[in-house]
Amino acid sequence: MMGRTALKITLAVAMAAGLLLGVSGCGKSAEAEKQAPASKAGTEKVLRVGGEATYPPFLFKDEHGHYVGFEMDLIKAVAKEIGAEIAYTDMPFSQFMTAVENKKVDVVISAVEGTAERAEKAAFSDVYYKKGVYCILVRKDDDQIHAADDLKGKTVTAVKGSTNEALAKKLGADQIVEAEYNADIFKNLEAGKADAVITDEPLAYYYLGHKNSLSKLYGLLMLFMAAMLGISLSNNLIMLLVFWELTSISSFLLVAYWHRYDAAQRGSRMALLITGMGGLAMLGGFMLLGQMAGSFQLDQILALGSSLQTQPLFVPALLMILLGAFTKSAQFPFHFWLPNAMAAPTPVSAYLHSATMVKAGIFLVARLLPIFVGFSLFHNLVTVVGLTTFAIGAFFAIFKEDLKGLLAYSTISHLGLIMCLLGLGSPLAVAAAIFHILNHATFKAALFMIAGIIDHETGTRSLKKLQGVWHLLPFTGTLTMITASAMAGVPFTNGFLSKEMFFTELVQHLSGFSLILGVAVATLAGIFAVAYSFRLVHGVFFDGEIGEQIPNPHAHEPQLGMRSPIILLASLCILVGIFPAFFAEPLVNQVTRASLQLNEFHGAHLAIWHGFNIPLIMSIIALFGGASFYFHLNRGALIRRIDMEDYLGKLQGKLIFEYLMQQIVYAARAVKLKTETGKLQHYLFWIIAFTVMMLFIPMYSNPLRTGTHLLTQAPWLAIILWLLLFSACWMMLWFHHERIKAVLISGAVGLVVTMVFIALSAPDLALTQITVDVVTTVLLLMSLSLLPQLTPYESTQTQRWRDAIIAIVAGLGIGWITWLMLTRDHDSISWFFVQQSLPLGGGSNIVNVILVDFRGFDTFGEISVLGIAAIGTLSLMDGMRTHGTTITQGLTYRFNPSPLLVRTTASWVLPVALVVSLYIFMRGHNYPGGGFIAGLITAMALIIQYIALGQDYAEQLIKAKSGRLYEIWIGTGLSIAGVTGVLAWLWSRPFLTSAHVYLNVPILGKLHLASAALFDLGVYFTVVGATMLMISVLGDSRHTNISGPVAKE
After folding, report:
1. Mean pLDDT along residues 189-207
2. Collapsing DSSP states into helix, strand and coil, what is residue 720?
3. pTM surpassing 0.85?
4. Least crowded by CB within 10 Å, which of 352, 798, 910, 1040?
């Protein structure tokens, strides 16, 4: 396949309108069309289909060698409609018409252009794809071909017999290198056999982007590893949850790495939804746990031990936390996501789905054992779920067709074994669980890598095709026998020791009927485990001669680099199995003490021989019973013909999940059709109704009356401001159908609020309010100028009266709530900020210190939202030729150059405004000012330049590149603010903790320097960039290269 670094699209050649591609038909005459694509009467119909499977995304082979794509889906639907089976034949494009003429196939499914010459030989279906352009591709180092005319005298490669070949000749190509398949034209170009390729646009983009980036894979693996380390090292429940969700997100991206395949898309979505649902439940459990413990610190919670079990909220917290653990660790009935996640690359499966991610739920249960141990519900539930998962996973692993599917269900089974041990809860059971975690990570990671080698060398992972591979891969087969023996629990391997410990703990902790049932289920699961391990070894490497269906019968052993990690892991399986006390015992005992917080635990003694007892008898029965069961199933190759999915039918977890998702989608659509009427009034009704209901519930049982706070007489300024507000509201009611007037009237509200701040001695807030009001008014005027000037009268008289009543009632309600608040005394926290502003924040301007220090994280979020809003405006408006668009019937608004006097005056305004903004910024930490106000002042000065000089000339002077410069300013501001917050970590302080010092500088004297000034600088850049980006995009988007509505002349 092509890499992105090899080729580039140099030109997209537009073709004439009406150039269509369609599915080639069933013959050239009515007689041929009447011939049913069936065999003899009374037999099953067979539709013989021809196609070319190197034409993605229409028809190609997926990673399993199956023919997929839109065209295959289309012909399958046709075959289903006529009740026929498909017999597909892959053939070069040049043989399509011959195959139809000679009746070698009944139908060709491909993008074949319906030319007059071809229409004489075959009947064409209706068009399903309309081609707009041809693409010309050249190598990246080619600097000679820039246009279609440059192909004259060049060597061009194209598919033989295609219209692309004809186009190459028409464009004057000196030589045509013909290719039988689409994939070959890219190989010809990379090999230097041609100067350019002419092909179709979808095909070009698919092949150029087909090779997945290894840097992306490594980056995602590093992200996942960091998330797992975060889970392991977090001492706070909320931080643990954040890293928990990060593992879900990174796992989703890794499973969807081969995102072109449907299996990868389905598997990643399923994994994300199941683990995300568990994470949401776990969030609720953590909230309850923190509420009960009075802290979210894990060490403090674990110190409380079993005392939390008496709390009434302990049971729901336990159930929700276990739900999160069960979904992450693929416990029954949430196990089905793990086999579907095996669509990921083999290294991802080996790392995530055998050693790390699926162990996260087990780690969480083990981490919280000190507060769970002794609670009967925990022991019963976890033990039963684990034992059930152990048996079910082992049973289904026997009958899986895919090699990685077998290992996936094997992983589910072993996860159930570990969870069952944690459910037993004794120190020795926990030690056995930790020991098996280590053992499972070694042999299962090795087996996943072996599966990757087999797939890589033979070209398939199908257990129905693999057979006799020992003749091709003897060394790999030896490694498989060692690791599969550990998985089955064969003596002298690490898996035998931990499984023996599992049997021992099960026998010791159960009694009566539970003992009989538990021993029976565990032994049965052991039999199944041995059976699928035998199938993995015998079915793949032996069981006769080399399989005839193996795609590559000449496979060979891989290089040592691919085998060395497996050799290391296989060696550990043997070494730990023979010398467990040396290689594993200290680590296992130390981790057990840490998990249970039992320093007095003397530890488990790991040894090969523990005497002749019930656990040993269970192991012997499992070994011989599993071998007998497998060879019975393998008699006459029966196991290769059994398909469990046919027996299960609709009871498969995957199908049940997809059915539930489908029903949820249907329900969501029904709710959407009922609620999304497209009328703003309906939306406001539901919002207001819900708000009123939520306010009414607490007030109903506790009626509120006027408080006891003494009332004061209203000063004349308050009365004047109230009259201004009343007048503005009345004028808004009168002129609300005229958009521009309505915006200007709404500015009066901002003016009144500014005067209120001045009256209350808050000049910095007043300055912020007035600048925000001016900029907001400008933005609203520019936005609304794109809409019709007048809003039509669509409401009836009755509806207007209804709206008036609702508005009056809502206003009276808000007024009543305000009255209740103002007539009550309250405990103010302002004293804290007054006292601590200078000592902690290093500034005497309390408002600015609150913004950049006490509420710095909130401010960081606000400027992030501001930047996102500006980028969102760019995304929405970019490409729309907004000036005078015929769609919205708006004004032909734009910034045009102003008269000379205005331009001259504005040229003096900018430097003065920049000096003022610098002064406001520098003094902001101790006096009224700050980065936000300074940024708005700078933005207003730049807006004046736009108005005076015209947008084109102003942006040319600033080198704004049609607003793209402002995107850089936004990114710079957010980066400065973020880096300032991170720097606090270097001094072991929380994120965004500010610091300040006093320096004596010659000449300048004593200077007060605060790190919050850097954060304020980030605020400044973000505010200026976001404001100017929205102004630029709304004012003029003519410089875009994306097509949009045509402007009026």
Report:
1. 80
2. helix
3. no
4. 798
